[in-house]
From TrEMBL:
Residues 1-34 are annotated as: Disordered. InterPro entries: SKP1/BTB/POZ_sf. This is BTB domain-containing protein. Residues 1-11 have a biased composition (Polar residues). It comes from the Eukaryota.
Length: 304
């Protein structure tokens, strides 16, 4: 019997003939693994399915052209339809092939800040010199777009600024220039007007400033220029603030718009776009976006 070298396979030795292996279960071709749906091979079909799912999960976008020079913002369509009720109807009625919306009266700089608030919860911060819009400009655009989320964030930012100003300077009436902008441009029944009016009432400028002083005269000129301001102050004077202030947290709800229910709004948009039967058909074909939208509809009931 020939000797073999330890660690070598006799069948590989020169002059030896490989022995035939008996057929057994190990010789059977491996069973392909299936994806969770049980219909596709992970090694083959699911590669294409995964790519299809990636494409399906990509939210559609729309190009918003703003200002006289038509500066373009590419934004997610569903996000705009949920948050900005003003442009939901135009987007819903839009031909799917027409992927743009023109808003010539919108200031690009103000819209840039509002977009950053929607996407990042914070205001836009740029490494270059950028004209930052004031809170009144941001609030006015949000009011035009009917975006309660941005209006509430502007109001919270204004409440914080007034609180800091009062902490640092004591009894001070709102800045006349800001008050004038609010009463000149904001709707009569706006919560921004209400907040400014309550601040004036709680910090009576004719009580806190010496008659004939610059601030006293500035407030007097505002009342002479805007009769609505005097009427609003008279109507709001029924509330006695004492040691409380309009910018206090306990009064926040009085100046907040009704928040958007994201779940219900998205469910409404999904149903307006496609029937549940179509969604089920697409989901059965492997469209992950349709699977997610169906699951969302199952959790949220759209209020008629």
């Amino acid at each position: 019997m020939p000797r073999t070298i330890s660690g070598t396979n006799p069948s590989k030795m020169p002059g030896t003939v490989p022995r035939k292996r008996k057929a057994n279960d190990h010789d059977a071709p491996p069973t392909p693994k299936l994806c969770p749906c049980g219909k596709h091979s992970i090694d083959e079909s699911c590669k294409a399915l995964t790519k299809k799912a990636e494409l399906s999960m990509t939210l559609s976008t729309v190009n918003i052209l703003v200002g006289t020079d038509r500066q373009m913002f590419t934004l997610h369509r569903d996000l705009l339809m949920i948050y900005c009720l003003k442009i939901r109807e135009p987007l819903e009625a839009q031909d799917p092939e027409d992927n743009k919306l023109i808003l010539p009266k919108v200031d690009p700089a103000v819209l840039a800040f509002q977009v950053s608030r929607l996407y990042s919860q914070n205001g836009f911060r740029s490494p270059i010199e950028v004209k930052k819009p004031n809170l009144c400009e941001e609030w006015l655009l949000a009011d035009f777009l009917q975006c309660s989320t941005i209006k509430n964030r502007c109001m919270d930012a204004l409440r914080k600024r007034v609180s800091i100003h009062y902490r640092d300077h004591g009894n001070q009436s709102p800045i006349p220039g800001f008050v004038e902008r609010v009463y000149r441009d904001c709707p009569k029944d706006s919560l921004l007007r209400k907040f400014v009016t309550d601040c004036i009432v709680s910090q009576n400028p004719f009580r806190n400033h010496v008659e004939g002083s610059e601030k006293y005269e500035a407030c007097k000129q505002l009342l002479e220029k805007y009769s609505e301001l005097g009427m609003s102050i008279a109507m709001a004077s029924g509330k006695v603030w004492d040691e409380e202030f309009p910018w206090g947290e306990e009064h926040r709800s009085a100046y907040m718009e009704k928040p958007v229910d994201l779940g219900l709004e998205w469910a409404s948009i999904i149903r307006a776009r496609q029937s549940e039967e179509d969604l089920k058909r697409l989901a059965d074909s492997g469209c992950f976006r349709s699977m997610i939208e169906l699951e969302h509809l199952a959790r949220f009931t759209v209020l008629e």
